[in-house]
Amino acid sequence: MVKVIYVEQDGARHDIDVPEGWTVMQGAQRNGLDGIEAECGGSCCCATCHVYVAEDMLGLIPPPGEMEDGMLDNVVAERRPNSRLSCQITLTAALDGLVVHLPEAQS
Amino acid sequence: MAAPIVIVGAGQAGLQIAESLRGGKYEGEILLIGDEPVPPYHRPPLSKDVLLGLALGEQIEIRSRETLARKNITLLTGVPVQAINRERRQIAMADGTRYDYRGLALATGARLRRLTVPGSELQGVVGLRSLADSHVILAALKTARHVAVVGGGFIGLEVAAAARKAGAQVTVFEAGDRLMARAVAPVLSDFFLALHEAQGVEVRLGRTVMEIVGKEGRVTGLYGDDGGFRRADLVVVGIGIEANDRLAAAAGLDCDRGIVVDACSRTSDPLIVAAGDCTVLRDAVHGGMRRLESVQNAVEQGKSAAAALLGQERPFSQTPWFWSTQYDVTLQMAGLSTGYDSLVLRGNPATGAFSVFYYRQDRLIAVESVNRPQDHMLARKLLDAGQSPSPEVVADEGSKLALA
């Protein structure tokens, strides 16, 4: 299990154990975090699973591919340097303790 | 105690209705009933990541059982609903149990259209609609050497891509003269034909399957309508779906190859709403009934259906959007190109990234994008706003496209 800390807009914090190999999006979905919509189910096609990744672990995650980069240009909330689509972040043991902040809106 | 709101169908639309009811401050009981044995899950990955072995069943669950329980949504799985009694405001389950309802939502989805040629019932002849179907195909791909795909639409082509990645020889039979003809323009059909051929798939356009043959009850091959025989240890049939409207029709609700709903997801009974693949909506532009088989439609109709149950009008009018992933190519579609009279290319298909803009009487009606996510997302905004960039600007990659 990899611990992921999802922080909502109002500061509410959810520590969730997510199996290795799953994505940050999948962990949020099953646990019912409404701040991640993930309408396309992880196909990198809808830009509704946007998160801001805490800077300390950003370097441990492979950079966005072309599709993700293009979709990130169109997220509803502000795109920042640490913006990622959570369906494209696959969890490894190295990411234990990963903190992601949810944006104010997804759609 | 007041009766619950009952939702028949625990897929994307059914779940959306349940959660939107909670979001709309409905605090009464919600009964969400699914005929599959698992909690609501994302269906699109079934023909993509699941077949590629990249996602297990639980990974594609939209909500776990525990999460639904926490939201006070009662989930019943693996139990088919047998009948609706509108007079008594009751539904009857196959085992005889009855549940009263104060409001009823139908999100019964769709079923596979079946092949009817001889041999269609052989083992190894399968369709793809459910997680169980996907697991059957995934297991079969581990040993299958010759895979035949019947139907060159999205599902068939996504399966063909997965089968190639698994190392099988793949033949696709498409009765029409081009791929994905119901959804996309010829320029895109040509692009995807070349893509699949480059990946080693044999695509047989204008060909159907006449007979499937087997040995000891298991498929071994098939005959095309040209008389030719092809070996096959797995035949995947992807020739479309039919709305599950029997329950509704038997209860006397208006149906027309789907449960007829208005833009607010209301059926002909004021206590009953419907959403998702099981519905048809009167097409305001082209006339006739239109069924949209998409996640977006399930989600948006689900939101409208929940609102209607709470006595509010929330018409669904967003631009339709869809997608398909085949190999490393992502096709994203916004709007409906039906009835277009001209089209403009942005980008060059030879580069593997381009978009097609469709116009009808100078008005932009749809955009299909191959590996051009920016175009797709902008297209959704343009179409939502009813804006039509000039064909000259679209065709010139040097000109920036933007919402006015």
- The share of residues in helices of chain B is 10-25%
Examine the secondary-structure arrangement and name the CATH architecture of chain A. Answer: Roll
Query: How many domains of chain A?
Result: 1
Helicity level of chain A, as a percent range? 10-25%
Explain what the structure shows.
- The complex is a heterodimer of chains A (107) and B (404).
- Chain A has 107 residues and is of the alpha+beta class.
- Chain A has a single domain (2-63, 81-100), classed as Beta-grasp domain (Ubiquitin-like (UB roll)), CATH 3.10.20.30.
- Chain A has 3 helices and 5 strands.
- Chain A has helices spanning 24-30, 55-58, 66-72, and strands spanning 2-7, 13-18, 50-53, 83-85, 98-101.
- A 5-stranded mixed beta sheet of chain A has the order 2-1-5-3-4.
- In chain A, strand 1 and strand 2 form a beta hairpin.
- Chain A is globular and about 30 Å long.
- Chain B is α/β, with parallel strands linked by helices and 404 residues long.
- Chain B contains 9 helices and 26 strands.
- Chain B has helices spanning 12-23, 65-70, 131-141, 154-165, 186-198, 246-250, 295-309, 373-385, 391-395; strands at 5-8, 30-33, 73-76, 81-85, 90-93, 98-100, 103-106, 110-112, 125-127, 146-150, 169-174, 202-205, 209-215, 218-224, 229-231, 234-237, 241-243, 259-261, 272-274, 279-282, 289-290, 321-326, 329-335, 342-348, 353-360, 363-370.
- At the A-B interface, helix 1 and helix 3 of A face helix 2, helix 7 and helix 8 of B.
Question: Brief overview, please?
Answer:
The complex is a heterodimer of chains A (107) and B (404). By secondary structure, chain A is of the alpha+beta class.
Fill in the keyword field for this structure:
heterodimer; A: 107 residues; alpha+beta; Ubiquitin-like (UB roll); five-stranded mixed sheet; 3 helices; 17% helix; 21% strand; globular; B: 404 residues; alpha/beta; five-stranded parallel sheet; 30% strand
